[in-house]
Write a structure and sequence with these properties.
Elements (H helix, E strand, L loop, with lengths): L18 H11 L56 E9 L10 E5 L26 E5 L5 E7 L10 E8 L2 E10 L17 H5 L2 E2 L2 E2 L8 E4 L2 E2 L2
Parallel strand pairs: 1-9, 1-10, 6-7
Antiparallel strand pairs: 1-4, 2-3, 2-5, 5-6, 8-9
């Protein structure tokens, strides 16, 4: 079984047969010392702006892959890895008071490097699917609200800027759906879903810078996307 960490699952690269070791390493990395809310003082209580909700789009999976962990670049039983720039996306799920939301289920889905969604009918039959890309993954937040995914840098989809879909569900709150975008993409300015958020400050909450992360893979990237439930 492959596994990527934060409280539940990226397939490890160095020791593919040691899920316990992978879990320990990745759960440590998802402590997210860089997060501004990791040790939020009481003065922040009630002041965190909620992450804007977004449409789930037409491409939430109709069926789920047998391999649905948080490592999307490897599919169980496939010898290769996904095309694209390997990207580690991590963050925390918080309530409006800055408290971590543990044991929340975090799902992501996105198109592959060929701009094809998986496990749906996306009407793009002229482009082949990357069968080494999982397309969908899920994880569970740890005690600090942390989650982590290993995926590819999102690519454009017809009439859409690069993005990753997120859904968060758990006890005591309504299922929350949003999308993550990438800093510097020129089509951010014309994407109909993103610019539908009129408040520039709220819109900026969904746009994440991706930085070089040599430890992820050659030419790998990493970004942090914190989600505040309203």
């Amino acid at each position: 079984m492959k596994s990527c960490g934060a409280a539940s699952n990226v397939k490890g690269m160095a020791m593919p047969n040691s899920s316990l070791t992978r879990r320990k390493v990745l759960s440590g990395s998802v402590a997210l010392a860089g997060s501004p809310w990791l040790f939020a003082p009481a003065s922040f209580a009630g002041t965190l702006p909620p992450t804007p909700r977004q449409t789930p789009g037409p491409f939430y999976p109709r069926s789920f892959p047998q391999d649905s962990d948080n490592d999307l670049i490897r599919v169980a039983g496939h010898p290769g890895i996904a095309n694209g720039i390997v990207t580690r996306i991590s963050g925390r799920v918080l309530d409006p008071n800055g408290r971590p939301v543990a044991e929340a289920r975090v799902e992501i889905w996105q198109c592959d490097a060929n701009s094809r969604y998986h496990h749906v009918r996306d009407g793009s039959g002229d482009r082949s699917r990357d069968e080494n890309f999982q397309g969908y993954g899920a994880s569970t937040t740890d005690a600090h609200g942390g989650y982590e995914f290993l995926t590819i840098k999102p690519v454009p989809y017809p009439e859409r800027t690069p993005h990753v879909h997120f859904a968060v569900s758990g006890s005591g709150f309504e299922r929350f759906i949003t999308q993550m975008y990438v800093t510097g993409e020129p089509t951010n300015e014309t994407d109909p879903v993103l610019i539908g958020i009129r408040d520039p400050a709220a819109r900026a909450q969904l746009i994440v810078p991706l930085h070089a992360a040599p430890g992820t893979s050659p030419a790998g990237l990493a970004g942090q996307f914190d989600i505040v439930l309203g």
